[in-house]
Design goal:
The complex is a heterodimer of chains A (about 110) and B (about 475). By secondary structure, chain A is an alpha/beta fold. Chain A has four helices and five strands; from the N terminus they run E-E-H-E-H-E-H-E-H. Chain A has a single domain, classed as 2-Layer Sandwich (Transcription Regulator spoIIAA), CATH 3.30.750.24. Chain B has an eight-stranded mixed beta sheet, with helices on one face. Chain B has three domains: about 170 residues, Spore Coat Polysaccharide Biosynthesis Protein SpsA, Chain A, CATH 3.90.550.10; about 120 residues, UDP N-Acetylglucosamine Acyltransferase, domain 1, CATH 2.160.10.10; about 170 residues, no CATH class. Helix content of chain B is about 30%, strand content about 25%. Classes of the chains: A alpha/beta (about 110), B alpha/beta (about 475).
């Protein structure tokens, strides 16, 4: 998994690429924890995330929980078809705001 | 008249993508193999002699349909070599067989009504009802003036009423057909299961917790367990040997047999085949890697015999390896700390005894005794005598919690080595482990448990599983 952090207006965009699974989830959690010190609004751009398992999903949920506890939020964009199926069957789509693109997600923070 | 069912030489690509090497005629539609619908139709037409022709006999069909006695027909199996051309096969079979012949060719669903009296044309000639790709029914009626000299034969259409051909060209067609069946089309066919409520068809041994809900229409197979707060339907087909765990909802979905669906999942407008989650509209398929979400419940029967045969020499080898150490150390440590009386079977009372050892103050030799798994010596002896499994469930005593646990277990095989012991949990803590084990039991899993248990003993602190027994 590779993450790229792009500061953008009101929110920090974290682009996640590759596999988000048991092996890579701790890395994302750690990087997110560091960013949460100075930021509150996040957009996870999942355009290039081609795989997610339950640990990866649990990691995104844990990030959301930490963000909400710090009065922040995470919005998801560009969720691809296969990862979306995991969000659907686990009902995770109900706890996230999911947008089609970064611009709409960023606007929603305004 | 003889009926020849010409199975395609190979599975169509779309079928291979989702159903791997499963013969497409064995794909279940509303819990019934596709070929069985054709057999029903053939018996409806009052035909008894059926030949199933495959390019290469794969055994799938013969294993399931055997001689056809269950359908009151005689089934034989033939290989048709490399010929794939339907015209060539018909020519060859017509030359080989003397009487009238009905050919059924290709992968399609026969659209008919069991209550309608279909009649085949009686006049000599060639008849067919087929789609553009050649899938369908072909009839050769012989008699005086048989048009055998016609080359190529002049095919006439079957007269109405006649069975129609419903194409199965992709996963969406399979899904749509299942949904049509559950929505009422199944009433036109002979289907397994019984119904005591409109729109609900249940197989044998369907167990529902009180809080589980069935919302018609649904079709459910045999040996299904629905845990608490599960919601099935509307429009759900659930295959045989399926377990749907607490709080999950299944709607507008097809769950093929031998599947475990984890807790609190929402399966909507999807197909699940083994551990594969399929979206029928897009054709996207996702292999679920997490066993506790979706997994395949393996068939145990063959493996069971293998396990029982294999465990004897392994137990004997372990015993032989332990013998010198046991003879040396056993006299130097105290007698067993106690005996546990366990249930030999799920439904039997606790009658059999096992010794267990607990560490005592100042007994350094006990640590070595434990690390070498010498406390298992008596248990391995019981394995040799067929009283215990080598790897399986923790032997459970009679108690309220173990009775509750036993109700949740699919299988109970009291054993010398168990998954919960490998995890280091003690008696009373291991419900989740035991449920997990009973749902995922396999030869490979058993081997992992045994090897890890032995290795972990060597490197971990002493943690007897019965350490809190009697608390």
């Amino acid at each position: 998994m590779k993450t790229t952090v792009i500061p953008s207006g009101h929110a920090v965009i974290i682009a996640v690429a590759g596999r988000l699974d048991a092996a890579s989830a701790p890395q994302l959690k750690k990087e997110f924890g560091e960013l949460l010190h100075d930021n509150r609004s996040f957009i996870f751009d999942l355009k290039d995330m081609d795989f997610i398992d339950s640990t990866g999903l649990g990691c995104i949920v844990a990030c959301l929980k930490s963000a909400v506890e710090a009065d922040g939020n995470i919005k998801l964009v560009n969720l691809q078809e296969k990862p979306r199926m995991v969000f659907e069957i686990t009902r995770a789509y109900k706890i996230f705001e999911i947008f089609d693109n970064v611009d709409t997600a960023a606007e929603s923070y305004n | 008249m003889k009926c020849l069912i010409i199975c395609p030489s190979e599975s169509p690509e779309w079928s291979r993508d989702y159903f791997y090497d499963l013969c497409p005629y064995m794909i279940r539609i509303a819990n019934k193999p596709l070929l069985e619908f054709l057999l029903d139709l053939v018996t409806l037409l009052d035909l008894k002699d059926i030949v199933i022709i495959q390019r290469k006999l794969d055994g799938f069909l013969a294993d399931y349909f055997r001689t056809g006695a269950r359908w009151n027909v005689n089934i034989s199996y033939e290989s048709n070599g490399d010929t794939t051309d339907i015209a060539a096969i018909i020519r060859r079979e017509a030359a080989k067989n003397q009487g009238d012949l009905l050919f059924i060719n290709g992968i399609f669903f026969p659209d008919y009504d069991h209550a309608v009296p279909y009649e085949l044309p009686t006049e000599p000639g060639y008849y067919r009802t087929a789609d553009a790709s050649g899938r369908g029914f072909y009839l050769i009626r012989r008699g005086t003036g048989t048009p055998e000299s016609e080359e190529p034969p002049v095919w006439r259409e079957f007269h109405a009423p006649r069975p129609e051909i419903r194409a199965l060209d992709n996963i969406r067609d399979i899904y749509r057909l299942n949904m049509d069946m559950v929505e009422g089309m199944a009433e036109r066919y002979l289907m397994p299961g019984y119904s005591n409520e409109k729109g609900v068809s249940l197989g044998q041994n369907v167990e529902l917790m009180k809080s589980a809900a069935i919302i018609p229409p649904v079709i459910m197979g045999n040996n299904i367990q629905l845990r608490g707060h599960v919601r099935i339907g509307p429009n759900a087909v659930v295959g045989d040997n399926t377990l749907i765990d607490t709080g999950s909802t299944i709607a507008n979905a097809v769950i093929f047999g031998n599947t475990y669906i984890g807790s609190d999942l929402e399966i909507n407008a999807k197909i699940i085949f083994h551990r594969q989650l399929i979206e029928p509209d897009s054709g996207q398929a996702l292999d679920i890697v997490d066993d506790f979400l979706v997994s395949e419940i393996p068939h145990h029967r063959g493996g069971e015999i293998f396990v029982r045969v294999l465990q004897w020499p392994i137990a004997a080898l372990l015993l032989l390896g332990q013998l010198p150490f046991f003879l040396l150390l056993r006299p130097l440590i105290d007698a067993p700390s106690g005996y546990i009386i366990y249930r030999p079977k799920k439904s039997a009372p606790a009658t059999r005894m096992l010794p267990f050892y607990l560490p005592r103050q100042g007994q350094h030799l006990f640590k070595l005794f434990w690390k070498l798994s010498l406390d298992k010596f008596a248990l391995l002896w019981l394995v040799l005598r067929g009283k215990l499994y080598l790897v399986g469930n923790l032997p459970l005593p009679d108690s309220t919690w173990s009775n509750e646990l036993l109700e949740d277990l699919r299988t109970y095989h009291p054993a010398a080595f168990s998954f919960s012991e490998m995890r280091g949990h003690c008696l009373g803590e291991q419900q989740i482990d035991e449920i997990y084990y009973s749902r995922h039991r396999s030869l490979w899993f058993d081997a992992v448990i045994m090897i890890r248990s032995l290795v972990l003993r060597l490197i971990s602190p002493v943690k007897p599983i019965y350490r809190n027994f009697g608390d």
